Amino acid sequence: MKWRYIVLTIVLILIILAISYVTLQKKVETVPITSPTEPTQPISKERIVAYAYRDTITGIDPSIEFDTGIVILSNVYEPLLYYDPIKNEFKPALAISWNKVNETAWIFNLRKNAKFHDGTYLTSEAVRFSILRSKLIYEEKGIGPGWIWDCLEDIFIINETSILFKLKYPAPIPLIASSAYGAYIYSPNVLRYTNASDMMDERIRLWFEAGNDVGSGPYKIELYKPESEVVLRKFEDWWGWDIVNNSKAPEIVVIKIVEEPASQELGLLDGSIHIAINVAKASINRLLNQGYKIINQTTFHNYILMFNAKRWPTNITDFTKSSAICNSMGQGNRVCFSRIC
């Protein structure tokens, strides 16, 4: 009898131990596993500006592009001079002085501290290479704005920072050299980067269109998706930062392709963009009331009216002559823009 109690006691103890073990396992299994706290990423202090642009980018070869790529080129590259149409005066860009020798000769003196984005310095050879490439591509292939240099016979290098423009006929070289198209200067090292045989080699254009640059402007290209987004990064070695003296200049500029005015407005409202250039007029007062600001800038637009000389009535000489006279008097502009002015 005594042994029976002992056996029962042992069995009971084993049952209790088994139940305790199962319960303990369940508790262990339900305890969440925690990993060591991951260090948080430092918050970027870079200033970023998102700019909404309404058109896809048509190209970024500084010698060929003649359309919407100007929004990129004007920040990445620089001409020799800038022209102020309001004051009708020229301002130094990559050239610090320029003098007319005679009706067909001009001398330009270059900045000595200007750097390209590849770290090399601006030289007379770079100016000659850039301008002649624009000119020759147009003359041989018929593309780009190189026709602005039709007056140019050659560019002679006086020294590392001085050049002589020799013209075929009198022309306003300072005005041509300040053009927003076809007058940008870039490093001739592009020949080496692309293994090009000469300045006309197609590999140079393809290299540029792949999102590369060798400009001297305040920003350089970091990402190039012409149909959706372009990212520019601040070029710290730009010669002009001390002159501009803008401590709030953004480190990164994001150019977003946003075609619809409504989408640009939504981008402003949700904070995904900071600057919009194509918002519906009906929305402007509402945005002003919400604290947004409008900045009006005087910009230059060149509208070209083309006639089909093989079809009536524009194939009539008197018709085209009268149209030209009308347009020169400003009538053409008033007719074309009468519905939007």
TrEMBL record:
Pfam families: SBP_bac_5. GO terms for biological process: peptide transport. It comes from Ignisphaera aggregans. Residues 89-315 form the Solute-binding protein family domain. The lineage of its organism: Archaea, Thermoproteota, Thermoprotei, Desulfurococcales, Desulfurococcaceae. This is Solute-binding protein family 5 domain-containing protein. GO terms for molecular function: peptide transmembrane transporter activity. It comes from the Archaea.
